[in-house]
Automatic annotation (TrEMBL):
One of its GO terms (molecular function) is hydrolase activity. Residues 149-186 form a coiled coil. It comes from Pseudobdellovibrio exovorus JSS. Belongs to the YicC/YloC family. Residues 182-296 form the Endoribonuclease YicC-like C-terminal domain. The keyword Aminoacyl-tRNA synthetase does not apply. Residues 1-157 form the Endoribonuclease YicC-like N-terminal domain. This is YicC family protein. InterPro entries: YicC-like_C, YicC-like_N, YicC/YloC-like.
Length: 296
């Protein structure tokens, strides 16, 4: 079992460059990845995304790559914007004339103006640097995955505890079923006898018909089917969380089914003890649902 949330960081370097990769992910219905890369690494984004999606199924993840060069002279070229330099020269001369200053325009003044002289770093990535990038990415991905497994183990432990507690409440409801049915039978008998006329067309009402009506009403109000389905859903849920690869979407489906059955029991219940257990069960299912939202 893996959590969708996690963090992984890895840094590596050689004599020329230092590369640090950080991966951070939160819950998400589907897999969404956002890569924040230096411009020179853009061509490798698709390859890195494929590598990421082969390890992660769901979640919203941000991948940050920080690149720092170590050499005193970076690879690149210096460009001079001569047209802009001429415009600055004209501007300085005009200003000197307008202010009636006998100042000569110096080269240093022109060269310091924005965008006159620019250094353009090379986008070319050496084979050694590409290897270093992949190493940093795989290292961060490994740590990120380990963190998700660790959080997943904690989630599994909590889920098992909540499932066990839920099973106890369902067991209590099951034990109170006979009491509930007996109470319902008494109420239905009283209600049916009070509403049905004792004579129909001069004949006495058939007691067997009364019994059949009571049985029909009891079958509608009986919670045996809901208890059976709840027990089965809990067993399936427990099997799923024990599997090598746990799918959060399947667990989410079973959580909805658990809540559906418990709600049905609550709507049929006319026994205080059953109602109390239903409230506790719904609280536990809500906790389970919140935990399931974190599972990949």
């Amino acid at each position: 079992m893996k959590s969708m949330t996690g963090f992984g960081n890895f840094r590596t370097q050689n004599n020329e460059v230092s590369i640090e990769v950080s991966i951070r992910a939160v819950n998400g219905r589907f897999l969404e990845t956002r890569f924040h890369l230096p411009r020179g690494y853009f061509p490798y984004e698709i390859e890195l995304k494929k590598k990421f999606s082969s390890s992660v199924l769901r979640g919203t993840a941000d991948v940050y790559v920080l690149r720092k060069t170590k050499s005193s002279v970076s690879s690149g070229r210096i460009s001079v914007n001569l047209k802009l330099a001429h415009e600055y020269l004209k501007a300085f001369k005009k200003l000197s004339s307008e202010l009636r200053l006998n100042e000569n325009v110096r080269l240093e003044q022109i060269s310091k103006q924005p965008e006159v002289i620019q250094f353009e770093e090379s986008d070319a990535i050496s084979a050694n640097e590409l290897s270093l990038l992949k190493k940093a990415f795989e290292g961060a991905l490994k740590k990120f995955d380990a963190e998700r497994v660790r959080e997943g183990a904690a989630l599994k432990k909590d889920l098992q505890k909540n499932l066990k507690d839920l099973q106890k409440h369902i067991g209590r409801v099951s034990k109170m079923r006979d009491e509930a049915n007996k109470l319902l039978q008494e109420r239905f008998e009283s209600k049916v006898k009070s509403r049905l006329p004792k004579e129909v067309a001069g004949q006495q009402m058939d007691p067997q018909r009364i019994s059949q009506e009571i049985v029909i009403q009891l079958e509608k109000a009986d919670i045996n089917e809901e208890i059976t389905r709840l027990t089965e859903h809990i067993k399936n849920f427990d099997k799923l969380i024990e599997m090598p690869v746990v799918e959060g979407k399947k667990l989410d489906f079973y959580t909805q089914e658990l809540l559906r059955e418990v709600n049905t029991i609550g709507s049929k219940s006319q026994v205080a003890g059953i109602t109390e257990s239903v409230v506790e069960a719904k609280t536990l299912i809500e906790r389970i649902r919140e935990q399931v939202q974190n599972i990949e």
